[in-house]
Amino acid sequence: MVATFTPNYEIPLPDPEADVDEEFLRLQQAWSIVDAVIWTLAGVVANKANVSHTQAMSTVTGLVEALAAKMPASQTFSLDSLTDVDGAAGAATNYVLVKTASGVWSPSSAAAAIGNHQHGTGDIVGLTAAISAVVNAVIGAAPGALDTLDELAAALGDDPNFATTITNLIASNGVQPTVNAATAKTALADADVMPLLDSAASNGLKKVTLANLITSIFNGTRKIANGWFNADTFRLYKAATAFYSWFDAVALTAIRKIVLPDRDITLGITKIFEAVISGAATDFDIPPGIRRFVLRLQAYSTNGTSVPMVQMRGGGVVETSGYSGGANNSAGTTFLANTTGAFLNIGNAASTTYDVEIEFTWLTGNAWAFKISGTNGGATVDGYGIKTLSATFDGIRIRAANGTDVADNGLAYGFVEY
Fold this sequence. Notes:
- By secondary structure, the protein is of the alpha+beta class.
- Among the domains are: 95 residues, no CATH class; 31 residues, no CATH class; 148 residues, Jelly Rolls.
- Helices cover 20% and strands 28% of the residues.
- The chain is built from eight helices and 19 strands.
- A hairpin with a 5-residue loop joins strand 1 and strand 2.
- Helix 1 runs antiparallel to helix 4 and helix 6 runs parallel beside helix 7.
- The mean pLDDT is 85.
């Protein structure tokens, strides 16, 4: 069996059968241990005395006296003056003399002089404890059964492709088959729970109900782009009454759009005013953007004989010309052409009471068609015409043609449709 660790410090050795990725991790661990060992060794060696050092002669008992008896104290020698020393004069600082194979002493660095050599761990004080501390730091708090690479490999089934194995296991025997085998549910309930990765909590796994999801989507601030709703099933529901509305799109043969005016609107025809008609002239405002306006006059009468009329207002100005068409009366044979407004009758009396409806329909631009129908108490009245305003239609005025007769009775109702 091939050894997987060094015999002394159990430094991981290369495994020829392992993948490159696994060997890279093993190499990182081995170099971390070697680095720690070398660092500890360097620290221990640094505490030893240098091979070459100086010492005062006076500290050696009897040395000065012995030398004085041999030669003058001023006598000096160089190492190179010795027959078996060569190159000492040119040696670098902190170099030592090393005896060569020829027997001559030559200068050398301490590291070169020592060369490759072996030491027992017991030869270096504290080395074993230092290495143990480094190894323990690498192991950390791993349990005893998982504090070596061999034990970790065994726990993973000695599988060099462990990640791929787990991925395939999930795909073939795990979550996916469980989901595929689950019973399908088409009618979801508000309390149904779904998994969620919470981006506000580092994508931690959370759960959410269908009711939570719907509330979050339709929360009033989230915008839904490119949404399509089936008109046959889309409903506008009112919980208070349990009633709902929907869109009938059966007649559509092409793509259509609904143009909304820049204001609050109500679909269909809507009453916008109900008021008493009084004075020589009564004005009513009309909202912009409408396509149809209906004015209904009930029991309307004046105190004179001037024919009542309705005038249109464009851009805030009541227009008094340009009205085409005219008015008819079933009791008469004459026709009264419109001039300064849309006439309600061909004549008038103080006792005449009108119940009529005037309908204004948008044609194009600022052009409007109007139609009058109703009774004057004894006969039917009707009229028609077209008026092109100088600005947007925004109001009407009810008055007598002479501008002085005063309304003495009547109600006016206004209805609009967009």
